[in-house]
Amino acid sequence: MQQARQHLKNGCFKVRWHQGAVQFSYYVWFEDGSGNPLPADSSAGDLLTEPGILAGDFYRALKQKLFAERANSVMCYELLCIHDSSVPAEVVAEQCQKLTTKLWGSPASSPISLLFNVLR
Q1: Where in the chain does DSSP place strands (E)?
Q2: What is the Cα–Cα distance from 19 to 85, expressed in whole angstroms?
Q3: Diameter of the chain by CA atoms?
Q4: CA distance 3 to 23
Q5: What is the pLDDT of residues 61-113, one digit of tens each?
Q6: CB within 8 A of 106, min separation 6: which ones?
Q7: What b-and-e string marks burial along 71-110, b requiring 16 or more CB atoms within 10 Å of the CB?
Q8: Distances (CA, A) of 25 to 11, 70, 90
Q9: What is the pTM assigned to this prediction?
Q10: Which of 9, 75, 16 is closest to 44 using CA atoms?
Q11: Where are the alpha helices (DSSP H) in the chain?
């Protein structure tokens, strides 16, 4: 998680890395009060302190920096998936997409679909 949050601090909202026999995929995305995905400026993570065990303040500050006037109505979500390192990136992206669809409902309401373009 430390590596994922370091990337997040640097403004990267989607990250995939290998460590030994496993690969990690980490995604952070934002929604408005109606559940619509919101675009995030990747430069917004700059100058924020790295989140720690109690990271609520970091995410509050990140929402404030990204969506100043409406930060209180924005929801922040994160997903960390772990796969065997032999699984191709396309399969990892597809499985993460399916997982978010299961968790959040229909594919249309799965905001993580916006994040997968970088993995394909």
Answers
A1: 14-19, 22-31, 37-38, 75-84
A2: 8
A3: 44
A4: 12
A5: 888 888 888 888 888 888 889 999 999 989 998 888 888 878 766 444 455 54
A6: none
A7: beebebbebebebeeeeeeeebbeebbeebbeebeeeeeb
A8: 16, 28, 12
A9: 0.71
A10: 9
A11: 2-9, 56-66, 89-104
